[in-house]
Amino acid sequence: MQRATNVTYQAHHVSRNKRGQVVGTRGASGAARCGSAVGLSGAGKTTVSMALEEYLVCHGIPCYTLDR
Question: Would the pTM of this model clear 0.70, i.e. be above it?
Answer without folding.
Answer: no
